[in-house]
Amino acid sequence: MKVFDLHCGQGHIFEGWFGSEADYRDQQQRGLLQCPLCGDGTIAKGLSAPRLNLGAAAPQSAKTAEIPTPVATLPDSAPEKLRAMQAAWLQLSRQLARSSEDVGTRFAEQALAMHRGEQEEKSIRGQATPEQARELVEEGVPILPLALPKGSGETLQ
Ligand SMILES: [Zn+2]
Question: What is the pTM of this model?
Answer without folding.
Answer: 0.42
